[in-house]
């Protein structure tokens, strides 16, 4: 019974109606970049500059203590910040329609120092 209803609706142009309803429901501002959004993205780039300076300073002044197993991976964070910056800049100054870069942020900033003693494994 339900299948016959869907079949009749498809034959009567229901998909066309739904697509028209969806497209007319979008406002033009949803498709275009507003000047406020552009200013906010430019402000985000300035904040990224400040954050990169802070991270670079911290990386230069942080020493890894002997015997310390884990430390913060500043280089990975800086690479992710550069990736975010490139994404914002490409949005602000698009050259032409191109596919997005599918690479993801690393996200894991805790690394194990090479040569650190391994914890003993529990034996059953």
From TrEMBL:
Amino acid composition bias (Basic and acidic residues), ranges on this chain: 98-113
Stretch list, region Disordered: 90-124
InterPro entries: Uncharacterised_RAQPRD
Pfam families for this protein: Plasmid_RAQPRD
Protein name: RAQPRD family plasmid
Species name: Alcaligenes aquatilis
Lineage: Bacteria, Pseudomonadati, Pseudomonadota, Betaproteobacteria, Burkholderiales
């Amino acid at each position: 019974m339900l299948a016959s209803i869907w079949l009749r609706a498809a034959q009567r142009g229901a998909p066309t109606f739904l697509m028209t309803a969806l497209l007319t429901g979008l406002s033009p501002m949803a498709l275009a970049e507003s000047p406020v959004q552009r200013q906010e993205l430019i402000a985000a780039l300035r904040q990224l500059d400040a954050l990169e300076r802070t991270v670079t300073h911290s990386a230069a002044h942080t020493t890894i203590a002997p015997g310390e197993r884990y430390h913060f991976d500043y280089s990975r964070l800086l690479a992710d910040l550069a990736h975010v910056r490139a994404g914002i800049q490409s949005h602000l100054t698009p050259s032409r329609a191109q596919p997005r870069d599918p690479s993801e942020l690393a996200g894991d900033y805790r690394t194990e120092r090479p040569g650190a003693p391994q914890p003993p494994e529990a034996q059953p």
